[in-house]
Amino acid sequence: MPEKNNYDNIDPKDYETRHKKNQKERYLYDHWEPLFIAAIDKYSKNLVVLDLGCGPGNYAFLMSKLAKKVFAIDSSKRMIDYAKGKYPGIDLIFADATNTPLQSNSIDTIFSFGLFEFVDRKKLMKEISRILRPGGKVVISVPNKYSIPRFLFSLFYKLKGKKNRCNEPSFNEMKKAFREFSFKIVECKMDDGLFWIPYVNKFFGKKTFLFIEKLFKIFKRNPFSTVMFFVIQKR
User: How many domains does the chain have?
Assistant: First the structure.
């Protein structure tokens, strides 16, 4: 049985509406949500898919409209129970993402939105490699270690001698993990323009974020993007 998850302390309804709380969350939602939805449309149709770290199950529900079969796994009992009440037709499983009950080579596409920063990435990649069919794809979104807010929060925790519950990776750390388990990158996006500093974010608005976003399009990849988005394929 999975260990108690920090998400057990979060109201699933609050989690679903978190993007409405402030301009930072609204900007990130508006920027990345269309890409997530497009990836679900592209990589779910008539396939066996898994939402790994499914939370309240909203993405799994979208997958279920297109896929042949959907599995959804989360280690938060509270989130799984909420999702079961909301989406009774989906196969929702309470399990650890690094040790799932799924059969080897049984999944065509795995979606993982906001999981890699909370788990042992080597164990997670090993499990993903086990359950994914050869040629199968993994769609991943994960916070960037070197985004301004993540870097500052990490520094704050370090100076205070506190343990940060998140372990955000860098772009190079993700590439290394993919190579180690024989995955190739099919698609990568790091292009949001969020420039947000704790306690002074009122000085920055959406126009600033959009300007930074546009500026870094010249370089094709923003090394300070808050979110990293990957599509990888098992060789």
Answer: 1
